[in-house]
Amino acid sequence: VQLQASGGGSVQAGGSLRLDCVVSGGTFTRYSMGWFRQAPGKEREFVASISRFGGRNYFADPVTGRFAISRDNAKNTLYLQMNSLKPEDTAVYYCALIGGGRGQGTLVTVSS
What we know:
By secondary structure, this protein is mainly β. 0% of the residues lie in helices and 51% in strands. The chain has a 6-stranded mixed β-sheet with strand order 2-10-9-4-5-6, with no helix packed on it. The protein has a 4-stranded antiparallel β-sheet with strand order 1-3-8-7, with no helix packed on it.
């Protein structure tokens, strides 16, 4: 299974970005999916997850109320809508199969 994340970039604090992750080479609906991030000099951390058909979502405390996770099973695509971004959200964001592999990350930089 291959995962390709995109949509990162530079934004000012308070702005929004949407990350996309296209999954190929597998049956998308077999997997719960998640987003993780790693800030410079820090450990990788969980951001959000979504169940196979989108019925259950979980969020890390720092992003609750600001980020939304969704998926389009017809397009084999996972999304992360990030609103009210803060400088501390600056990190490389990765999409991943829960309990499985992850793709290359996409860099999000939030300036104050």
